[in-house]
Each structure stands twice: as structure tokens, then as C-alpha cells.
Amino acid sequence: MVPMLKKERFRTFSVSSLSVQYGVTTISSDADAPNVVKVSKLAYNEEYTPDYGYKNDVAVVELATPIIFGPDAQPVKLAPAFNSTPENSPALLSGWGLPYSGGSVMNHLQKVDIMVYSDEDCERIHAQTGPTDRHYHICAGVPGGGKGQCNVGSLNLHLDFEELVNSL
């Protein structure tokens, strides 16, 4: 297992007001919104450091009831532990994050085709703007910037991955 994902490094907190909506392209907080499941447990890494490069920025969500898989809801394959990121390869980034720094969370599913950068390219690109650490980050975007995972709230990077954190 990846050292930063060890079960004993996770903390939980109250989730009474949290829920997950799945299998939709437009999210809604309406009482009758489709495919909404309550969260029964959320564990986050106690070593998460938002003030220094978002190290250990990971959480595990346990749902009160199972997701019903179908054409619009499928499990995502995650990378095996210690798998290297396939540099200079295309990836699809999708979710309801922020369209830009300081923007509002989007209601409609967004997607963008991006390129996974090598660790060396990432460190060069971010030399002036902030820390990046190849042990904690997957660096991706488009030439010239402005599209990527850096300014978002909840996005999913799809890289044809397998399983992760089975023992949590």
C-alpha cells in the first residue's frame, strides 16, 4: 500500500449533512434530485497540508447505500500502488470544479482533454508559482495553461487506473 494511504493516518469527522450524487451531468441540491446517496463515513489523511502543495490531498468516502451501476454510473479503475504516471500521454479531466481561480462550482459536468507532463516539465512549469512534488502530484494540463486540475473543487482524472486502498 502507498505509505501516505495507510489506514492509521486517516481521521474521520461528522458526515450527517454530506451526500453524493452520481450518474448525472447536472448536479442538484433539490430534495427530489436523482441518484443521491448519503455519506456514512469520510476519512481524510491527517497529514494533508493545503498550505504547502496540497500533499496527502486524499479522502475516502463510505456511502450509506451502494451505488446502482448502469450506463451512466460505472466504477473507475485506479492505479496500483507505486505505479508511475504515464508522462506525455493524453488524459481526460472531468467534474464540477471551478472554471477558474475564484470562480463558482459548476452545475453542469465539465471535461477537458489534457496532457500528463513529466516530473521534470512539471517542476520547470511551476518553478515560479509554487511547490510541486513528484511523490504527491500528477501534473497535467494544456500548453499555455488555463485548463487543468489546479483550480478546481471536485474533478476526476481518468488515466485507465486499477484498484486503490482496498484495506481502508
UniProtKB/TrEMBL annotation:
It comes from the Eukaryota. GO terms for biological process: proteolysis. Keywords: Disulfide bond, Hydrolase, Protease, Serine protease. GO terms for molecular function: serine-type endopeptidase activity. It holds the Pfam family Trypsin. Residues 1-168 form the Peptidase S1 domain. This is Trypsin domain containing protein. It comes from Asbolus verrucosus (Desert ironclad beetle). The lineage of its organism: Eukaryota, Metazoa, Ecdysozoa, Arthropoda, Hexapoda.
